[in-house]
Amino acid sequence: MKTLLRLCLMLVMTPMLASTLTGCSKSEAAASPNGIEAAKVADMLHIVMAADRTTYVKKVVNRFIKEQKVQIKEPNSEAFVAMAASEEWENEHGSLPLPAQMFRMGAELAREKADGLFDYQLLSEWPINKQNAPRSDVEKEGLKFIRETKGEKPFYGEEEIAGKRYFTALYADKGVAAACVDCHNMHPDSPRDDFKLGDVMGGIVIRIPMD
Ligand code: HEC
Predict the structure, then answer these.
(1) Which of 18, 45, 82, 175 lies in disulfide reach of 11, CB 3.0 to 4.6 Å?
(2) Sequence-distant (≥ 6) Cβ neighbours of residue 67 within 8 angstroms
(3) 179 lines ligand 1 (CB under 6 A)
(4) How many Å apart are CA 103 and CA 122, to the nearest integer?
(5) Is the CB of 101 inside a 6 Å radius of any atom of ligand 1?
């Protein structure tokens, strides 16, 4: 911890060096004049994202599928099938978008509106969709940090991508409902089948340009 603090202070004193990642936790990152503003903005954005994501999973997906076990009448048939959340929701009668798809559709709309102000994405060290694997060193370090700290604290770092400097924050994405955990544990492309309720299942990365 001491070494980490020293590293953070060093980066504060030499901001040009700060393009590499810092493992600074919340209070330590606040020492940086750039970091504190960006960190607050990222924290606020994350609160909204996580609230919407939890609400969709608990009040829609988990409620209809796990609690009410809603049955959908097949079109042109008398048969009923269990309502599902599915990757193929657009082609399936009565299917709900997956929470991850809901999140991505929102992110895509937001990206158009935000016009470079910020960007965000869902990631995981155990991705079902390999597009959601971490790429940059900061993403990898951030996911490791939130796994090791069980999502208690966000991770703040800085990185340079294509010549542009970014403040990059990662927040834990937790299995807040049985639907999260069960679907991932049972999915054939999931590298893990042992998630439990409340576990860190991945992370939300938020990037804010610093220049
Ligand atoms: C009905 C199945 C289902 C449910 C419910 C579900 N997921 Fe997923 N999740 C998926 C699938 C499939 C993907 C990959 C979809 C994609 O990226 O298009 C995914 C993607 C993710 C990712 C990105 C990494 C990856 O695995 O590709 C995270 C993190 C994640 N889900 C966490 C959660 C959490 C937390 C919940 C509950 C709040 C949840 N999921 C609910 C099926 C599900």
Answers:
(1) 18
(2) none
(3) yes
(4) 8
(5) yes
Q: Is the CB of 61 under 6 A from ligand 1?
A: yes
Which residue shows structure tokens 């959340």? 85
| Tens-level pLDDT at each residue, the chain (211 residues) | 333 333 333 333 333 333 344 444 444 444 444 555 899 999 999 999 999 999 999 999 999 999 999 999 988 899 999 999 999 999 999 999 999 999 999 999 999 999 999 999 999 999 999 999 999 999 999 999 999 999 999 999 999 999 999 999 999 999 999 999 999 999 999 999 999 999 999 999 999 999 8
Cα–Cα dist 168/29, whole Å: 12
Going by alpha carbons, the residue nearest to atom 14 of ligand 1 is 129
Q: Are 32 and 18 in contact (CB under 8 A)?
A: yes
The token pair at 210 is 């610093």
| Residues comprising the chain, all counted | 211
Residues 161 and 100: their CA atoms lie apart, in Å, by 25
Rounded distance between C-alpha atoms, residue 66 and residue 177, angstroms: 10
